[in-house]
Amino acid sequence: MRTSLPPQNRLLEYFLYEGGHLVNRVDRSSRAKKGRSFGTVDANGYVTGYVDGRKYYEHRLIWKLHYNTEPDLLDHINGDKQDNRIENLQVLSNRENIAKSHNRSLPTNIYRYGECFRVRLQINGVERHVGIYANLEDAVHARDLALA
Fold it and tell me: Judging by beta carbons within 10 Å of its beta carbon (0-12, 13-18, 19+), is residue 119 exposed, middle or buried?
């Protein structure tokens, strides 16, 4: 279960929304000083940071700040995980999210895995993990070998 976000009134007390990012309205800690941007980019490319000792994604806090809701799936329309402008965020159902991920510009059976590419096949209804590769060309080659 996902951690509940701080209440909207707390977010309004702590942050200003400026150009798709949160800026500290007050000093919250020795690092979270008034006027500084919220958080840092994590290993998956999302902006994350701490509020009251708990780690949160910036885009989820921005959504809560604007709409006072906590959707299960929040998507970046343009695919840029750091573009947290409210107009670039949308709520998706699980089905819509799966369809969107399948319609991205990667070859069939190849998926993003952080900065790498994962090859996963369905053979006779059984999922088979082929491997994780640093570049797309190696992933395509491995997929083709596995299908041969």
Answer: buried
**Cα(111)–Cα(126) distance, integer angstroms:** 17
pLDDT averaged over the chain?
88
- Domain around 132: 105-147
Q: What is the CATH number of the domain that holds 62?
A: 3.90.75
Give this prediction's pTM. 0.67
- Report pLDDT for 95: 74
Q: How many domains does the chain have?
A: 2
